[in-house]
UniProtKB/TrEMBL annotation:
Sequence intervals crossing the membrane: 6-27, 85-108, 114-131
Identification of the protein by name: Cofactor assembly of complex C subunit B
Annotated InterPro entries: CCB1 (IPR021919)
Statement: the UniProt record of this protein carries the keyword Membrane: yes
Keyword annotations from UniProtKB, A to Z: Membrane, Transmembrane, Transmembrane helix
Keyword Transmembrane helix: yes
Organismal lineage: Bacteria, Bacillati, Cyanobacteriota, Cyanophyceae, Synechococcales
Length: 184
C-alpha cells in the first residue's frame, strides 16, 4: 500500500462508517410511530357520517374497543402486519452497506481481508428487527366536539387520531372539510 493512498482510504473508511450510521437510523425509522391527528367539520352527527366511518374502519379490520358517550369518543384497535417486501429490502440495504464496509476494511488490512466479509451475516438482522417491531396493535380514536366553534358555526369538529397512512385513506374515502395532520 502506497503512503499516498492512506488519506484516501482513511476518508473512504470514514464516509463508509458515516453512511452505515445513516443506514442504522433509516432502519430504526422504518418502525417509528407515525400517529397523527386531523379534524373534520361535519354538519350533523346524526346524519350517518359517523356510522359510515365506523363501518369503514370495521371493513379495514379494526374493531371497536371502547365507546365513551360522555366524551363522545370511539376507540378502535387493529393488528398491523409487517411488510415482507420492506423486510427483504432493509436486509438487502444492510447487506450492501456491510459489503462496502467489508471491502474498505479488506483494503486496509489485506492480510485479514477475508474475515471482514463475515460481516454480511449481520444483514438479516435488519429485516428481523423490522419484522418484529412493525407488527403491532394500532389504535384509532374518533372524538366529536361541541359545535360552538367560531371558525365553523353550527358544525361539529370530529377529531381523528390514527396512523398517517390510515388518515390518508380516510381522507380519500370521505370528502369532508379536513384540517390538520399534526404528529401526536
Amino acid at each position: 500500500m502506497d503512503i499516498m493512498d492512506l488519506p484516501v482510504l482513511g476518508s473512504t473508511l470514514f464516509f463508509t462508517i458515516f453512511s452505515l450510521i445513516g443506514l442504522v437510523f433509516f432502519i430504526r425509522s422504518s418502525v417509528k410511530d407515525r400517529t397523527q391527528k386531523i379534524r373534520a367539520w361535519i354538519d350533523n352527527p346524526e346524519a350517518g357520517i359517523l356510522d359510515e366511518i365506523k363501518t369503514y374502519f370495521n371493513s379495514r379490520a379494526y374493531r371497536i374497543t371502547n365507546i365513551d358517550p360522555v366524551q363522545q369518543a370511539i376507540a378502535f384497535e387493529g393488528n398491523v402486519q409487517a411488510s415482507p417486501f420492506l423486510a427483504v429490502f432493509l436486509s438487502l440495504l444492510a447487506a450492501l452497506g456491510l459489503l462496502c464496509l467489508a471491502l474498505v476494511l479488506a483494503v486496509f488490512w489485506p492480510q485479514r481481508g477475508f474475515l471482514f466479509f463475515f460481516l454480511l451475516w449481520l444483514a438479516p438482522l435488519a429485516g428481523t428487527f423490522y419484522w418484529q417491531k412493525a407488527a403491532r396493535v394500532e389504535a384509532i380514536t374518533l372524538e366529536l366536539g361541541d359545535p360552538d366553534q367560531p371558525s365553523h358555526p353550527g358544525q361539529y369538529p370530529l377529531t381523528i387520531t390514527a396512523h398517517r397512512d390510515e388518515l390518508r385513506e380516510l381522507q380519500a374515502q370521505f370528502p369532508l372539510d379536513w384540517q390538520g395532520g399534526s404528529s401526536h
